[in-house]
Amino acid sequence: MNNIGIFNETNKEIKELNKLKEVIDKAIEIEKVNNIEFNIIIVGNEKIHEINREYRHIDRPTDVISFALEDDESFPGMEVRVLGDIYISIDKVYEQSEAYGHSFFRELAFLTVHGFLHLLGYDHIKLEDEKEMFSRQELILSEAGIKK
User: Fold this and answer.
1) pTM of the model
2) pLDDT recorded at residue 70
């Protein structure tokens, strides 16, 4: 049983959040994880800027920040893996979807999948890790029917 919370902490109505569950389900299926719990929190640029400054010491807004709660795949004795939280800036979703010439939903789904993969331990610091993570992102989005 998976428990994914999606919280809109902005004053904007985001109808696409309903469709986001399908993308998350596809990501969970492809990554072959189960009994997981995590949250997706939609915020504005001001809030994500504050989070980025406080936790990453980078004084600007960003598009997505993941806070992974586990360093390992398992906590002995726990039936549910609590993965952590994904913060997404809705302002960046609007900006980047326009800048990249694709839909708002595609950008929202991309950032969600990106954050989810970080919660699972994927990273893109080294080139070979970046190739692996980005290919997983594209596979998940493609399998979910989301094209560029």
Assistant:
1) 0.92
2) 66
